[in-house]
Automatic annotation (TrEMBL):
It holds the Pfam family Methyltransf_16. PANTHER family: METHYLTRANSFERASE-LIKE PROTEIN 22, METHYLTRANSFERASE-RELATED. This is Methyltransferase-like protein 22. It comes from Galendromus occidentalis. It comes from the Eukaryota.
Amino acid sequence: MEEHETVLSEVHIGLPVCSTSTNVVSRFEFEVPAGLSLRIERNSEESSDSEDQEPPRRRQPPREVLFIEHNMATALSDVGLQVWPAALAMADFLLHEHEKFKESLLLEIGGGVGLCGLVASRVAKKIVCSDYKAEIVDAMKTNFLKNRGVVRDNFECLVLDVKDAEVVDCDFLFGSDLIYDDEITDNILNFVKRSLLKTTVAFFLSLEKRFNFTIDNLEESCPAYKHFRECCQRQCLQVENIDLEAVPQYFKSLPRSKHIEILEIRIQTPDP
C-alpha cells in the first residue's frame, strides 16, 4: 500500500456517531467486569435501594460508555487517528485481567486516539499513553478530557518515538495493531527488548493478521506478521499466545475476528 492511500477501519462502520468541525465522535459501550469499580465509585445509594426491592430483579451487567473522537479515514502514516479491531480486543483483555494490573504502572506504545489507554486508566495504578506524533497525542489528550467521568486521574499522554527513545520505567508494556510495517516492527521490538532488560515484566501485544494474495505463489501470505515473528526470534524474545476464548468480549460493537491475536512477549529464558 502506498503511503498516500487512505484506509478506513471497520470498527467505525455502523457505530453511533456525531460530528465535530473536523472529526467524528463514536460511542463505545462496554460491560464492566465483576470486581471492577463502576464509574469512579458511583453512588452507593443506588445499589442499596435496588437490594430492598421485592422481588429482587435480575441485574444486567453494569455498563459504561466511552466517547472517542477520531478520523474516519486516514493515510497509512496516520492510522493512529482511528480505532482498530485489535484495540477492542486489547481493551477486553485489560478489563478481564484488571486484578493483574491494579498495582502496576503501564506504558502503552502507539496509543492512538486513546481507547485502550482510557480502559487502562480504570484498571492500573498509573498509565502512560504514548504515540510518535504530536498530532496523535493531542487527539489522545482530547479523548481523555472528553471522558473525565469514566476515567481516573492517573494518566499521562506523551510523544514517544521508540526508534530513539529512552526506556521508560514501567511494570508492563502494551500496544495494539502495531505490526504493519517492517521498519516500525524492528524499532518497536528493539525498544521492547531494552525495556524487558530493565524493569518491564512483559509486553502484551494485540494484532490482526492481514493476509495478502500473491500472484507469484498463488497463495495467501501475511508478510508483516512473518517478519514480526522472525524479528522476535532474532531478538531472543519468547512469544506466547493468550487464549482469547477465555477473554470475554466486553466491547461488543464489532464481532471479534478469528485473525486477531493477543501475545505475551518476554525475554527468552535459556533451556536448563
